[in-house]
Amino acid sequence: MPAYARSRAYARLVLRITDARTGEPVDAAPARRGLTRVEAHSRGLDPTNLRVLLVADLLVRALELGGTPVWALLTGERQQAELRAAGAALGVRPFEDGRDAGAGLGEAQVLHVVGEGGETPDGVRLAVAPVHWEAPGPPGDTDPAVLRLTLLAHPRSEPVTVGPAALGDAGDTLGRWRRAVAAWAHRPSRPVPDPVRADLRAAWEDDLDTAGVLGVLRAVETDPDLADGARFETYAYADRLLGLDLTRDLGSPA
User: What digits encode the pLDDT tens for the residues 197-224?
Assistant: First the structure.
């Protein structure tokens, strides 16, 4: 087995995010079981605002995986229906309308997900860097899962250029992983190894480092000492955060 972070295998991990107001990390859920409101702020439908919604979706998923109840809201004045539809295609779960939302009952914290240079609401803010679209055709013409993987491969604080090469690489990876997961599912099940689970959690608890999560999956894919059943469970577990539908091809011939 490669040098996974065995020392972290039994550590109590807490989701930490960088607050754009101060540049300092803060606990995303200071009260572990307290209701946390995640509010995505959009300015219409474009690749950058779609990325804002995707980051909010990842934040919701990470909090829920840690046992924190979440109230997910989308706030904006333009093209909300179109953005919701594009987000649903991208695998973003439903967000409630946040325009008239008051404080939630027992709400412990509010986390605002905003585009860089956009809204500056009071409270903790996660800033999302812009997307530069260089692919032929609009985003709606791109396989949503391929686009999602392309965006997940970069830290949210870094601008992303989406072009044919990036989409091609993501498409190849997604296809390969889905075929592999379907094949591994035919093997006897094995639990996710504790060091691997710890590395996955350490990555996404560190400011939603999805690029780090993907790096762990690449290591698992090629580790000669891991059983295929453990690979399957690892990918299925990580996909609860990534939302790439990696188990889509289950039931296909081995």
Answer: 999 999 999 999 999 999 999 999 999 9
Q: Which residues sit opposite 37 in a β-bridge?
A: 71, 110
Q: 82-93 burial string, b = 16+ CB within 10 Å, else e?
A: ebbebbebbbbe
Reading the block at residue 243, the tokens are 């939302």
Q: Quick one: which of 126, 178, 123, 124 has its CA closest to 149?
A: 178
Reduce the DSSP state of residue 97 to 3 states and report it: strand
Partnered with residue 151 across adjacent β-strands are none
All residue ranges of the chain with pLDDT < 70 are 1-13, 31-33, 99-108, 252-254
Tell me the C-alpha to C-alpha distance, in Å, between residue 68 and each of 62, 71, 160, 180. 9, 10, 30, 32
CA–CA gap between residue 138 and residue 141 (Å, rounded): 6
> pTM for this structure?
0.91
Instruction: Give the whole-angstrom CA distance, residue 82 versus residue 92.
Output: 13
Q: Are 103 and 73 in contact (CB under 8 A)?
A: no
Sheet holding 96-97, edge to edge: 96-97, 70-75, 35-41, 107-115, 124-128
What lies within 8 Å, CB to CB, of 120 at 6+ separation is 114
Residue 5, both tokens: 């972070």
In the structure encoding, which two tokens stand for residue 189, read together?
């099940």
